[in-house]
Amino acid sequence: MWLFLFILALAALAGLHFRWRAKFQAQREQRAAEMEAFQRKQQQTSLDAQAQQKVLFDSMLEGLLLLDRSRKIYLANRTFKSLFGVKTELRGKTVVEALRLHELDGLLQRAETEKQVLDYEIKLPGLAERWLQVNAAAITNAAGERDGTILVFHDLTRLKQLERQREEFVANVSHELRTPLSLIKGYVETLLDGAKDNPEVAERFLKIIERNANRLDLLIQDLLTISALESGRMKLELSPVDLHALTDKVLTFLHTKAENKNVTLINELPALTMNADANRLDQVLANLVDNAIKYGRAEGLVIVGGKKLADGALEIFVRDDGPGIPAEALERVFERFYRVDKARSRDQGGTGLGLAIVKHIVHAHGGEVRVESEPGKGATFFFTLPQPSI
Q1: SS3 assignment, position 146
Q2: Helix (H) or strand (E) holding 67
Q3: Which residues pair with 139 in a beta bridge?
Q4: 365 Cα distance to chain centroid
Q5: What is the C-alpha separation between 264 and 250, in angstroms, rounded?
Q6: How far is 40 from 111, CA to CA, in rounded Å?
Q7: pLDDT digits over 208-241, tens only?
Q8: What pLDDT does residue 249 have?
Q9: Contact 97, 123 (CB under 8 A)
């Protein structure tokens, strides 16, 4: 009897043990599943955070470079790769290995020593000019130990170009103003020293003074014009313009100048009417024809012509049969104060702003300008007026 009860008790204990073991195993498997789900969620959250971080970094206008404590690249955003023209994977490389730029490696050493370097400028090697401003800072952990370095790159190229253009512009304006002012001052001093008592000399000197005063006035007017055009302050007054009649007016105005060089002016422009600013268009044609007379050959031809294009725009040209323009100068002739032949340009007079004014007026109308030329075969200046014809 006792043996039976003992065996029954053992069986009950064994059943209870297996029951609790199965329950414990189920609970452990449940906890493991929950832990695995939690880890997956944490991993997904981390991946989402990394993806968001990458999108954020890649959307930055500045180049961003993160380095770890061993100076290996941890992260380089899209703008950084674009600035340096890098297409390969950079992670794990040093700056020198990735860019072959030792100056940047020197900047890193400064940042580690000084903790922060601001507004450092660097010029990248290569055919195309590229300037970058770099801000670098050391990243430290809670213990104050260096944990890495962050560098932010800003493209300064356009600012550098604008600064250089500003300096060139100021230098050119100063030169253009100084020349006639020096002549005026010199001849006035000579007159005051006694030349005024000689009527023939006085008259000749006064004419020179008048000519240079007019040159100054023209320069100032051109400077004001181009300033207004470039700033957008000059508003076009559009109205129907008879282009053939406007060309006749311009050629009549320049007839005496052309006659002095025995240059024949020809108006081949067909009867075309467009919406444009008549006064500004007068400036465009006058500057182009005046240039053609100046730089064309003596006893040559200057022809104004044009046609209607397939899209409804008009293309007008001014052609001369002079010595032409060198190929290397074709892209620069519309720049302010650019002169193909500086010595000849000084002799011919002018402000050096005429073609720049032409370009800005045509652009203000929504058109384009260009020039075609071969040395010894003259030059042809084209401009388009895309306004719908009437």
Answers
A1: strand
A2: strand 63-68
A3: 148
A4: 21
A5: 14
A6: 39
A7: 888 888 878 878 887 888 777 777 777 888 889 9
A8: 93
A9: no
